[in-house]
Amino acid sequence: MTTENFAIFFFLARMGTRKKVHAFVRVKPTDDFAHEMIKYGDDNKTIDIHLKKDTRRGVVNNQQTDWSFKLDGVLHDASQDLVYETVAKDVVSQALNGYNGTIMCYGQTGAGKTYTMTGATENYKHRGILPRVLQQVFKMIEERPTQAITVRVSYLEIYNESLFDLLSTLPYVGPSVTPMTIVESPQGVFIKGLSVHLTSQEEDAFSLLFEGETNRIIASHTMNKNSSRSHCIFTIYVEAHSRTLSDEKYITSKINLVDLAGSERLGKSRSEGRVLKEATYINKSLSFLEQAIIALGDQKRDHIPFRQCKLTHALKDSLGGNCNMVLVTNIYGEASQLEETLSSLRFASRMKLVTTEPAINEKYDAEIINLRQIQEVFNQFRVVLSQQEQEVESTLRRKYTLIDKNDFATISAVQKAGLVDDDGHLVGEPDGQGFGLGVAPFSTRPGKKSKSKKMFKEQLSSLARKEGASSPVSGKDLDASTSKIQLTPSSKDGDVKDMLLQDRETSSIEPLASESPKEELRPPRPSTPPTKPVAFEDFKNERGSEINRIFKENKSILNERRKRASETTQRINAIKREIDMTKEALNFHKSLREKQGEYENKGLMIIDEEEFLLILKLKDLKKQYRTEYQDLQDLRAEIQYCQHLVDQCRHRLLMEFDIWYNESFFVPEDLQAALKPGGSIRPGMMPLSRIVSLGEDDQDRFSRLQQTMLPEGPDSVSFYNAKVKTEQKHNYLKTMMGLQQTHRK
């Protein structure tokens, strides 16, 4: 292949991987739809706009009146299900295969962007793209058991060109000390200081979504009562490793779900104050976004102005990067909003000119690579070691001649030559461990009986003495066994030692087995379970003793606070009665003074000593009353908090008792074997739903079925559970803040 042909092939290959951004239009349903001005094509991909000429411009009027926009689809009166199937389903499917994805909602204020992206959290059927993406991700994870997939999420808000973490209110996150910044790296763009949260199940992801939604900045607007005043980016990070292959390669991807703030014409909206400032920042950032889109659509442009604003900088990977991108343009189909509709459709047509290059994000685990490098070094070391062993063996074979031990004629000839002694050892090696030639000194020669044989006889005799009367061994038998072992060619010192060790282990294990105590038998379960009051007393003394102790301590503290509050109330009532009596006495002195004359000759008021003391006393009583009343307010706040703790402990104590009672007396037959010693389930480790349902009555069973058989199906359980938990958490925080403010007062 020539150089020119290769260049053409490479160019065609690159062109094959490039794809254009998909752009859809969703029309907001309205009773005053402009049917004469807005028309749809038969292919459901074309939208035509017709505008009547302004007669005030005179006869010569070159005003453009007709526009036609070709998009990937027009969603008119479409349900949330149809929108998701058309727009987002394929993007999410490819994201789990390693492709990045971005779904963006654009349009004017009040056109339905947030409804399209998030939906109505009060109704499961009206949920938007974002909750459905989370459901699809976790559903696809369950369908891929051969992959270990990790999911993390983050939620970013851009408000007035400032970055905010919508999940920073979580207790384990806390506010960031340093302001968040956008950082570029070879791996892409990321937000420094933005918290990323690991989610192992669908309900946790929904909880994070609802937590972020409650922290979004919204404001009332002429076009929308709950208008989003900021850009929000919800990002899902996916990392997939293979469970079957120990490969260092794994794939990563991320899904950006962008809900842009709505553009508006300030001349129409007539916004003022803070709303005007927000609208200015929103229009400015959307204008920079459109400039970046125009530059991306122009193939001749080299520089793309991504850093003009925080929005375009944060979306640098998504705009024209290596991801699958989909734009949903929301328009308002009324005649009064036709100018904004044209502006939104122009943006969508410009977005269709942008091309992306989707590619799988493959990464390599450095730990596995290092481990394989170490393994390769060890393999090379083994090869070198085996080569050295072969060289040593070949050298020894060239230097020495091997003699078969069963060839007695050759052995006797060698012994006569003085090269080998009577025990078969080479001359010059007293221990018989190495090679040696020559005549060894007489002092170094071993005796007729080798040391190993003497040790073996001594060990056998000691073993026979230990066995005693149970297995007596005579001296002749001992000699016979010894001689028998000596005549066996394959018996060596190592084999003898192994035999002795086996005998010792056998003799030492047998008495242990006989002395081991018998396994304790569990007491049989009574045929009729005890009543719950009786079992509850046993539970409080055994398994629930710690919870019961905490419950009693909290209850005693609550009673002590109530007693103090009662005493304080009595003191306040006594002070109030004394104040009333003092006021009556002062009124009596005042009336008496009025009768006698309030002033003396010089015009000064006449107050006797008794009335003066009553005034001082009234002042002190009022001071005491305020002090006692403040103490009473503090005690009431403490009582409310202690009551909450007592209720919480009581609920936990009763729940633990129900679990223990059902485990102990209502466990079905299929779980009894698993609960025995050595089984796979221990008491307290059974599934909570299985335990709670053991002792439930018809009403409890009906409530549980009512929860599982929801109108929207079982898939809606995690959605509603996450919403309820988020609401309970925020209600609890509001209550605690109110208590703290009351305590400060």
UniProtKB/TrEMBL annotation:
<keyword id="KW-0282">Flagellum</keyword>
<dbReference type="GO" id="GO:0005524">
    <property type="term" value="F:ATP binding"/>
</dbReference>
<feature type="domain" description="Kinesin motor">
    <location>
        <begin position="20"/>
        <end position="354"/>
    </location>
</feature>
<keyword id="KW-0505">Motor protein</keyword>
<dbReference type="Pfam" id="PF00225">
    <property type="entry name" value="Kinesin"/>
</dbReference>
<dbReference type="GO" id="GO:0005874">
    <property type="term" value="C:microtubule"/>
</dbReference>
<keyword id="KW-0547">Nucleotide-binding</keyword>
<comment type="function">
    <text>Essential for normal male fertility and for progressive motility of spermatozoa.</text>
</comment>
<dbReference type="InterPro" id="IPR027640">
    <property type="entry name" value="Kinesin-like_fam"/>
</dbReference>
<keyword id="KW-0963">Cytoplasm</keyword>
<dbReference type="Pfam" id="PF23735">
    <property type="entry name" value="KIF9"/>
</dbReference>
<feature type="binding site">
    <location>
        <begin position="107"/>
        <end position="114"/>
    </location>
    <ligand>
        <name>ATP</name>
    </ligand>
</feature>
<feature type="region of interest" description="Disordered">
    <location>
        <begin position="432"/>
        <end position="536"/>
    </location>
</feature>
<keyword id="KW-0206">Cytoskeleton</keyword>
<dbReference type="GO" id="GO:0007018">
    <property type="term" value="P:microtubule-based movement"/>
</dbReference>
<keyword id="KW-0175">Coiled coil</keyword>
<feature type="coiled-coil region">
    <location>
        <begin position="558"/>
        <end position="585"/>
    </location>
</feature>
<dbReference type="InterPro" id="IPR001752">
    <property type="entry name" value="Kinesin_motor_dom"/>
</dbReference>
<dbReference type="InterPro" id="IPR036961">
    <property type="entry name" value="Kinesin_motor_dom_sf"/>
</dbReference>
<keyword id="KW-0493">Microtubule</keyword>
<protein>
    <recommendedName>
        <fullName>Kinesin-like protein</fullName>
    </recommendedName>
</protein>
<dbReference type="InterPro" id="IPR056524">
    <property type="entry name" value="KIF6/9_C"/>
</dbReference>
<keyword id="KW-0597">Phosphoprotein</keyword>
<keyword id="KW-0067">ATP-binding</keyword>
<comment type="similarity">
    <text>Belongs to the TRAFAC class myosin-kinesin ATPase superfamily. Kinesin family.</text>
</comment>
<feature type="compositionally biased region" description="Polar residues">
    <location>
        <begin position="480"/>
        <end position="491"/>
    </location>
</feature>
<dbReference type="InterPro" id="IPR019821">
    <property type="entry name" value="Kinesin_motor_CS"/>
</dbReference>
<keyword id="KW-0966">Cell projection</keyword>
<dbReference type="GO" id="GO:0003777">
    <property type="term" value="F:microtubule motor activity"/>
</dbReference>
<feature type="compositionally biased region" description="Basic and acidic residues">
    <location>
        <begin position="492"/>
        <end position="507"/>
    </location>
</feature>
<comment type="subunit">
    <text>Interacts with HYDIN.</text>
</comment>
<dbReference type="InterPro" id="IPR027417">
    <property type="entry name" value="P-loop_NTPase"/>
</dbReference>
<keyword id="KW-0969">Cilium</keyword>
<dbReference type="GO" id="GO:0008017">
    <property type="term" value="F:microtubule binding"/>
</dbReference>
